[in-house]
């Protein structure tokens, strides 16, 4: 694969969506102006923004089932939830992520395999080995080239998410669940050098600065 997969992770309200949009604009701006970028990025090359769940048409339907409390009319069981996230990922990788990486695009993805480890593994308490295997099946072994972990205080993140409007099924879980998810991210970051921690308790601009600084170094390394 000649493209690069850059993933954003973290608990709710960390600002992933906001930061991904800012980074996309920055990359597109840089692409026109910098020698480094034109060496690395073909002039016609795309910067793709996508997410899990919901990066494909099937994924969009699965996202509705997973996050909209009213839609299924019955409680989704934990293993069923795990398998729905895996189905979304498998479709996403085959239909969208791999084809764009093969074309050499930069794919900015809001959540990926670490979300399943953090939410279904640490949050729900499902078996971590099983999740690793399932992640491997769903991705066909594809890994992110760089993961930004937007590390925010759980309470601040949930408050931000709630202030934004209606909260979804996952966000309605109790605070202890979200704290276990946070612990999952801490463990993942400890054991995986491709995860870069970003202090997400700061202003939008300060967070973006940290992200750009890390990515600039990576782009030089990759070029
Ligand atoms: N999930 C799972 O369980 N297992 C899996 O395998 C996968 C996912 C892939 C998907 O939700 C849900 O699925 C998620 C995990 C689960 N659970 N939940 N809940 P999602 O990814 O679509 O949504 P989210 O994770 O809840 O993200 P979010 O709430 O949309 O937050 P965000 O994208 O990180 O932040 P944002 O939308 O950019 O910002 C949130 C608000 O804060 C918004 O009003 C901003 O204007 C504001 N904001 C952003 N940055 C700042 C700063 N710096 N200061 C102040 N305010 C800010």
Would you mind describing this structure in some detail?
- This protein has 223 residues and is an alpha/beta fold.
- The protein has one domain (4-222): 3-Layer(aba) Sandwich (Rossmann fold).
- The protein is 58% helix and 12% strand.
- The protein contains nine helices and five strands, in the order βααβααβααβααβα.
- The chain has helices at 16-33, 35-40, 57-67, 78-103, 113-123, 128-139, 154-163, 175-191, 204-222; strands at 4-9, 47-51, 106-110, 146-151, 195-199.
- Strands 2-3-1-4-5 form a five-stranded parallel beta sheet, with helices on both faces.
- The two termini are 14 Å apart.
- The relative contact order is 0.20.
- The mean pLDDT is 92.
- The chain binds ligand Z5A.
- The site of ligand Z5A has 25 residues, from α1, α5, α7 and α9.
Overview in brief:
The chain has helices at residues 16-33, 35-40, 57-67, 78-103, 113-123, 128-139, 154-163, 175-191, 204-222; strands at residues 4-9, 47-51, 106-110, 146-151, 195-199. The chain is α/β, with parallel strands linked by helices and 223 residues long.
The largest pleated sheet is described as: 5 strands, parallel
Kindly identify the CATH topology: Rossmann fold
Ends: how far apart?
14 Å
Ligand names? ligand Z5A
Note the main attributes of this structure.
223 residues, alpha/beta, Rossmann fold, binds ligand Z5A
């Amino acid at each position: 694969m000649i493209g690069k997969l850059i993933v954003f992770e973290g608990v709710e309200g960390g600002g992933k969506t906001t930061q991904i949009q800012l980074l996309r604009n920055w990359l597109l701006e840089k692409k026109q102006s910098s020698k480094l970028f034109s060496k690395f990025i073909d002039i016609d090359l795309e910067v793709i923004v996508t997410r899990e769940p919901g990066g494909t048409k099937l994924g969009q339907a699965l996202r509705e089932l997973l996050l909209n409390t009213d839609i299924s009319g019955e409680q989704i069981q934990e293993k069923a939830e795990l398998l729905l996230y895996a189905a979304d990922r498998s479709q996403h990788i085959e239909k969208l992520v791999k084809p764009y990486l093969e074309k050499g695009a930069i794919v900015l993805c809001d959540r990926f395999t670490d979300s399943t480890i953090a939410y279904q593994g640490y949050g729900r308490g499902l078996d971590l080995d099983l999740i690793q295997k399932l992640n491997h099946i769903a991705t066909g072994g594809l890994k992110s080239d760089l993961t930004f972990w937007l590390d925010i205080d759980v309470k601040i993140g949930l408050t931000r998410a709630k202030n934004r409007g209606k909260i979804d099924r996952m966000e309605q879980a109790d605070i202890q669940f979200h704290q276990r998810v946070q612990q999952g991210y801490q463990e993942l970051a400890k054991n995986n050098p491709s995860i870069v921690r970003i202090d997400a308790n700061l202003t939008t601009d300060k967070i973006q600065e940290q992200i750009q600084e890390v990515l600039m170094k990576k782009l030089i390394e990759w070029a």
